[in-house]
Amino acid sequence: MSIEEKWELFSTSVKASAEIVIGCKRGTNREHWISDRTWNLISDRKEAKKRKDQAFTRARAQAEAVNYSKLDKEVKKSCKQDKKDWIESKCTEAQEAASQNDIRSLYGVVKAAHGCQGQY
What is the span of the domain harbouring residue 87? Predict the structure, then answer.
């Protein structure tokens, strides 16, 4: 076994075990409000697009296009609901912080809801 083969085996095993133990973080910091269900729908949509683009016959491509458009609508609907739920939870946190006169927490919640980095 060559050094390259040993390194490839080692790196794939480390990556696989890290993905199992730690998990895979998807999206950017701005997309932290997206739920796991929506990320799964996004993955399904990506696969449907790949199948649509690789279809050999016109009938198959049209069937895959219908499936893709259905998944696309579902992803958009789910993202919209996730963002609405996240904003409602942030508003509730801000109300609780304001009622307790906790300005530091209130400022952090408002800053996070506004899209600024970091939270106090």
Answer: 3-114
Rounded Cα distance between 117 and 112, Å, is: 7
Give the pLDDT band of residue 119 (cuts 50, 70, 90): very low
Q: Which of 29, 24, 28 is nearest to 40 (CA)?
A: 24
Judge whether 120 lies within some domain: no
For residue 33, is it within any domain? yes
Q: Which residues contact 52 (CB under 8 A, 6 or more apart)?
A: 61, 64, 65, 67, 68
> Is the residue at 16 inside a domain?
yes
Confidence label for 118 from pLDDT (cuts 50, 70 and 90): very low
Structural domain count of the chain:
1
